[in-house]
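Q: Can someone sanity-check these two? First one:
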Amino acid sequence: MTKDEEIERLKKHSRFASTIIHNLVVANQAAWIEWKNGGGSEKAMHWIHNGLCGPGHIPNNSEEQTAQEWFDSNVVDHDQKMTQ
């Protein structure tokens, strides 16, 4: 693979990742708007559920962790990841 081809490949991956992040943020914003406009937490959670369910990311919390425990054990340390 040439240097130019590699640069283009990396740009495509970057655009793909950026699109995913953007769409997740927009879905979270829609959930917040749903809740803020009086739709309630159940309707707001439909936005969150759809964002997770579609790509198969509903968490398997078999250890029955609290939300904070689950987050802490699954979040990626950006600084550590970038140095690998």
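And here is the second, same format, sequence then tokens:
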Amino acid sequence: MRHPTVNRGNITDESVYDSLMSAPVLNSPQSGVLGMHPIRKRTRVVDAKIEIRPMMDLALTHNHRVVDGKEALEDPTCLKLDLRRGPTE
């Protein structure tokens, strides 16, 4: 899968606000912002067992005048797959 290119983007730390979910705000000339929320312990089912694991919510905001449709959907999909895959050599 091809990673989409974004002209200008930013990563923001939303955890400083101690909120569970929020949407990052775009500032000109950004075309996308990735908001990273606090890491919290949550329950998750793994191999039919309930486990407590650290998890983080991510919020991705796009300027739909720059990135729209299929390309806007590829960004979070690629990010999710990369995070699940883990670090590569």
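A (reply): Looked at the second one. The mean pLDDT is 78. The chain has one helix and three strands.
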